[in-house]
Amino acid sequence: MPSYLRAGSLPAKRHIQFRRPNGGLYAEELLSTQGFESVYSLLYHLRPPTATLDVRPWSRPSPDFSPNEPLRNRHFLTQRIETSGDAISARAAVLGNADVTIAVAEFTEPMAYFYRNVRGDELLFVHRGSGYLQTPLGRLDYRAHDYLVIPVGTTYAVYPSEKTRMLVYETSGPVQVPRRYRNEFGQLAEHAPYYERDFRGPVLQEPIDELGAFEIRVSGKERNAIYTVAHHPCDVVGWDGYCYPYAFNLEEFAPITGKLHQPPPAHATFEAPGAAFCAFVPRLFDYHPLAIPVPYNHSSVDCDEVLYYVSGNFMSRRGVEESSITLHTAGAPHGPQPGAVEQSLGKKSTDEIAVMIDTFSPLHIARAASEVEDQDYYRSWLEPTAT
Ligand SMILES: [Fe+2]
């Protein structure tokens, strides 16, 4: 959705006859969002995508969430959550609420089926690994530090070429570029930390002309099903529009820095209903001669902040490691741990990479996260006891 794309063969106008070389008609499909009111794409299939052989239940397990009770700041060592299988079956929920589910997934297996989330857009952050997504709109290659935005209703399969670790956000609506990054025509503004050229769309492949029985697992939170369809889903000869999966790598993110500390909204990447996403990437620190590079203590009194630590030296956090997730909750202040402010003085730059989501409704904690919680994290702001 950053901008209009077109690929492959298209008729001169939408909704008119578009014939195959043998004279038969291609099957047009409109992928539309928010009814007919928001972004959409038009796809041209070799055969109708409606040909369904079978529908049966899919008993996809629901996350086992508990409230953040007692309400406190928390730290989860998610590298210790064992996941296996493919990109979907490996998802282990960590935190969630009605707006978003946050999961981790580490996998090596290619998907033996297609998957379609019909509840909201998915935002996948690739921590490690590479591979590609196969979709009817084309192939989308991924590599470490990619964000992958997958619109609601996109049919896709993930094929890792090496062991892949992802942070997965299943949202309840569109994942969008913040409005303030766009001008009145939707173009990314000059002050935005990225540009249209930084986004990678899918590359349309030759249509797969196969009849048979192809499985698509459809998920809409509590509504799940396994469809068997009669044609390969990736039989598209052309498509155009604004609704398509795309990738954005953090290498392309141009962080906004300042004379004094820039708050997280300066590092915003995307937003979704009830959630805002940010990325902290290698950057120069503030240039005031007396600047304090690490953040000040603060209380986000009406949102929960979740940081996922990707790589680098996490200067302001004691005890975190790669793949750690901290939950800094509404109701409790947080800030640098003892000594971190002094240690940071005079530092000119950071090599840390971390991604963040703020949620505006309280997050609940999944059982898998509770099992890897650093139970003493909320005490980590105490001065170390002298020995
Ligand atoms: Fe914070």
Name the descriptors:
single chain, 387 residues, mainly beta, Jelly Rolls, 2 domains, nine-stranded antiparallel beta sheet, seven-stranded mixed beta sheet, globular, binds fe (ii) ion
Describe the fold and architecture.
The chain is an all-beta fold and 387 residues long. The chain has two helices and 28 strands. It has helices spanning 340-344, 367-370; strands at residues 5-8, 27-32, 40-45, 52-57, 65-66, 74-77, 92-96, 100-107, 114-117, 122-128, 131-135, 138-142, 146-150, 155-160, 164-171, 199-200, 211-220, 223-231, 236-241, 246-249, 268-272, 275-280, 283-284, 304-311, 324-328, 349-350, 353-359, 364-366. The longest helix has 5 residues, at 340-344. The protein is globular and about 80 Å long. Fe (ii) ion binds at residues 298, 305, 328, 334. Fe (ii) ion is lined by residues 298, 305, 328, 334.
